[in-house]
Amino acid sequence: MRDATVTPNGDRIRWVEVPGKEPVRLYLHGLGSSSPVYYAAAAAHPLLTGHRSLLLDLLGFGISDRPADFSYTLEAHADAVAAAVRAAGVERAEVIGHSLGGAVAIVLAHRHPGLVAKLVLVDSVIDPVDPSRSAIASQTEEEFLAGGRERVEQSAGPFWWATMRLAGPEALHRTAVHRCRGTVPTLREQLHGLDLPRTFLHPEADGEVDGAARLRESGVLVEAVPDCGHNIMIDNPDGFAKAVATALA
């Protein structure tokens, strides 16, 4: 396990690192999850091995520190990841981001263009979301800290619960709120404007991605992965590995 200080207060991001050749691959997890858990099988797949890989936990989640005084905006997450990546001596990483991690990856590429060579978004958030649709963001932070978190955990599936309970409560709530709120310019606008290879993976069963035609017009490769739900890398590791290997070829 490796770590790096990413805030003036000394808060540290941690990651599991797999040695290998360049270019480096950076894996970013979704809300309430953890990269070493969610990506372990996929990163070890024969189609994806051989590269130096950082399975990184965002600040507030998994094995990283959980400061209560961090803003947990998408921009702050991206800047913290950038600090960790630079501390690891990484340049021009191939970034794979799932759900929330994809949103952070877009902002990372937008704000720190020299750090990202290619982008693979895995059923990622790219549009604002109505907070009422989120079990977490629909609560105030006070409600969430006073018992709302426990109600969300009770309704979560066993896999998500196993990693969500590791998240800092402030991190979980504030990140969920900012995930719903999005960014200015929007994540979709930032994605359209990036000048690098970009792929958007989504479950085949969900049908066409909203705005897929415009994404393709801006150079984003939109690919459906069969036999999976939102957690593509867990539900279909072979399909995920094949799609990611193709995107990064």
UniProtKB/TrEMBL annotation:
AB hydrolase-1 domain: residues covered: 26-130
Domain of life: Bacteria
Annotated InterPro entries: AB_hydrolase_1, AB_hydrolase_fold, AB_hydrolase_sf
Iron-sulfur keyword on record: no
Entry keywords, A to Z: Hydrolase
GO molecular function, one term: hydrolase activity
Name of the protein in its database record: Alpha/beta fold hydrolase
The species this protein was found in: Kitasatospora misakiensis
